[in-house]
Amino acid sequence: MTERIEKLIEEMSLEEKARQLTQVNAKIVYTATTAAITGTGGAMGLSEEDKAGIGSVLNFSGADEEKAVQDDHLSKDPHKIPLIFMQDVIHGCHTIFPVPLALGCSFDEALAEECAEMSAVESRLNGVQLTFSPMVDLVRDARWGRVMESTGEDPYLNGLMGKAFVRGYHKGGMLCCVKHFAAYGAAEAGREYNTTDVSERNLKEYFLPAYRACVEEGADLVMSSFNLLNGIPLNGHKDLLVDTLRKEWGFDGVLISDYAAVKEMIAHGYLETMEECAETAIGNELDMEMMSSAYVRHLPELVKEGKVSEERVNESLRRVLEMKEKAGLFECPYGDTDAEKAKDVNLSPAHRALARKAAVRSAVLLKNGGVLPLSADRPFALAGPFAEEKNILGSWACHGRPEDAVSVKEGLEAALGRKLVSAKGCEGDILAADESGIPAALEAVKGFKTIVACIGEPSASSGEGASRADIRIPAPQAALVKALKEAGHTVAAVVFGGRPQVLSEIEPYCDAILYAWQPGTEGGNAIADLLLGKEEPTARLTMSFPRKTGQCPIYYNCFNTGRPRIPDTLENSNYISSYRDTLNAPLYPFGYGLGYTDWELKGVRLSSEKIVEGGRVTVSALLKNTGKRAGSALVQLYIRDRFASVVRPLKELKGFQRVSLAAGEEREVCFDLSEEMLRFYTASGEFASEAGKFDVFVGLDSSTSLSAELTLVK
Ligand code: GLC
Q1: Ligand 1 centroid to residue 258 C-alpha, Å
Q2: Digit-coded pLDDT (tens) for 129-139
Q3: Which residue among 6, 26, 465, 489 is the one 20 to 30 A from 194 at the CA level?
């Protein structure tokens, strides 16, 4: 490995090195002329010689194209260095799992790992050697479309889930790339690609930990993000890219830019020329430039002019070549691509079964007035624009196809063995304003007492470039739900979306609300399993659901302020931290979700009221299934550091346990709480705990008040 790499570094010209540090769309190097390429990458002005020496490609159609592109490349590359093929396998390759924000609601790392592993198995057969996943950006603003790619607002959970994805990809034999470093999810007003401004403390406490967790778990690549952060575009941040990522965290893998982000330092108003972009990026140890050509056009000159050392270029080149070695590409340039085998593995029964299980474990039951589960022998009808919708795959669905997906109607009809009446009532487009179809829908379902209303936002309304300034359920859909209720129906809403949406206007008209997210290929079967009671909803929210869009950003681990509104009522708003027109609390809080039984949680106890440096206590509580059927609860552990050298959040998630009990069964649930778990970045910048009193909470969601007092003595 080393010998071959050092020999290549010795033989390659500066121009060849610059090309090897560049990634472009597969079409650029293989079929389309560069002039044909538009968008942020632009006509990259690559010569035929440039194209022959490119290091990596992204966005290709699958196994056949991968082989053709690799063969073409190797026939032209003077050093016969294989391309590495990267793709956005975010939540599945051909078999599509629930979007990560949904899967995160399972609070199940093993499940996330299993889904990632299966994604990798499919990906490798389809020509992918590396995925641009996991995305672990902390998110707090549901207006931002890419919340669907993250696992939510808690840094601890995001780290656990991100590590599970890394392990799963590696178990499945695929390299992976953690993104988007850093704090891309803090986009002002939730507007895509918008400015981010995050204090050093908040970066360390909230926005960086999950990236670090994935680096420490062995993520092979890190992707630097588009955003301006504290006045400097990310690719200009030596403090983060070098001091933090390389020196403090010890990351020595490939750092790749996001799509044309190197070039975009000009649009940001940070650098004036592509030459400066190349000099700055390589100086910050950005090893591979995605979809812009600053390196190809300017690195050789920069080295010849002495502005950039060849050793710095060689260090990046070494990382890129080592990545290819790790992927086994020098021995087998196609990786594990196998178009024939892929036909059997893609969407196989086993893969579909896991997708179905994941979708069951991701849907969150937000309301249930005794309506769910539906009894199979009681007739019901379907309504709404998503009842027969098959594009429930989310916006990063890679090679997933709606025609391979199962709609709610298909899932329910398969489970019941009978046809169902379904009436669309209105369009699913978030900008649709047409309510004219509602009377006909009411007529079509009038003979059925219970209606399953399938509503929400389309897959394309979340994801990259899909911010929404108003995240309510579209008006025609809300009108449909209201009309159904006012016509005397029992309404069980199934809501699709890649983000928390504002459900306040439909909530009064729904007897039940199941938030299905974008559940993936097996969504309809999973929703049928849940609606008919074959499975219990066990997922819990990892992102707060606002009452109004204007509450965004809203998150559980916020501060108390000097004038908290207690109680949180509209009448109590004078000179209090509040809104005049809504409560401060979210409609549904972090950690919340219902099942099909009832729970009682009481009697929080600590093994000791005091804890010392390096010490630990046991936190216990009594959980009882007080309902009529077996069920599964997610018991959560939170702390609050009441007074500290910097204000601490009202709650911080420190642990969770899934507990399944039979009806009437009671069990003591115990958590281990260590002094290390009480540490934070103090006013002096040290990561330490401080003596004083803590509230230790146990609950079934983050609104719990069930607590005991703990004193840290030093
Ligand atoms: C996109 C996204 C990034 C993705 C990359 C390659 O713009 O920001 O998440 O991995 O480009 O598709």
Answers
A1: 6
A2: 999 999 999 99
A3: 26
